[in-house]
Design the sequence.
């Protein structure tokens, strides 16, 4: 009998049927629309749409200082376990992507930043409830940095970044504000 004409085995029919039924069933995992774990509660403050302002000072050489404005949006991603914060300058030209989460096993926050100019870093954070500050620390190939995110109200964040070289000498400071334009969608 030709292979194309042989009857299909019963197990193959059942497997195929179960496979397609499985594809039609709704997923049982958590989705981005569901509430994230309690450990993400402090990061949820970032959810929504924002106006941004920053003042950047490079200590040189040569010393430089400039101001920027922009817009940002923060949403849940990857089944609600991470927050994705995207910012861009106005007018467009500079942009960055931040991914944030809470690492339960290590009892700290994690942040990854990627900028359109090629800059990137990884940081770990700790929340200080009494001061409403989330402090991020990290190192790059040539510097260490500390970022303090200070919530002055539910709709306003003031933040600072201090970057130092290997000898501890300051190389850059950034002061910024985020002002909420629109809360996140439920």
Sequence:
């Amino acid at each position: 009998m030709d292979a194309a004409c042989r009857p299909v085995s019963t197990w193959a029919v059942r497997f195929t049927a179960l496979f397609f039924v499985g594809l039609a069933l709704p997923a049982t995992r958590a989705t981005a629309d569901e509430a994230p774990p309690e450990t993400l509660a402090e990061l949820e403050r970032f959810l929504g749409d924002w106006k941004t302002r920053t003042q950047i000072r490079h200590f040189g050489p040569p010393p430089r200082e400039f101001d920027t404005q922009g817009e940002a949006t923060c949403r849940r991603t990857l089944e609600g376990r991470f927050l994705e914060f995207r910012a861009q300058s106005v007018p467009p030209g500079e942009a960055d992507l931040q991914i944030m989460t809470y690492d339960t096993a290590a009892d700290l926050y994690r942040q990854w930043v990627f900028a359109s100019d090629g800059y990137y870093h990884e940081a770990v954070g700790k929340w200080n409830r009494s001061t409403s500050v989330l402090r991020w620390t990290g190192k790059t190939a040539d510097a260490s940095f500390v970022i303090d995110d200070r919530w002055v109200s539910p709709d306003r964040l003031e933040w600072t970044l201090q970057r130092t070289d290997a000898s501890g000498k300051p190389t850059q400071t950034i002061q910024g504000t985020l002002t909420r334009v629109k809360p996140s969608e439920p």
About this structure: DSSP finds one helix and ten strands in the chain. Strands lie at 48-58, 64-77, 82-89, 95-103, 108-115, 120-128, 133-139, 144-153, 156-164, 170-182.
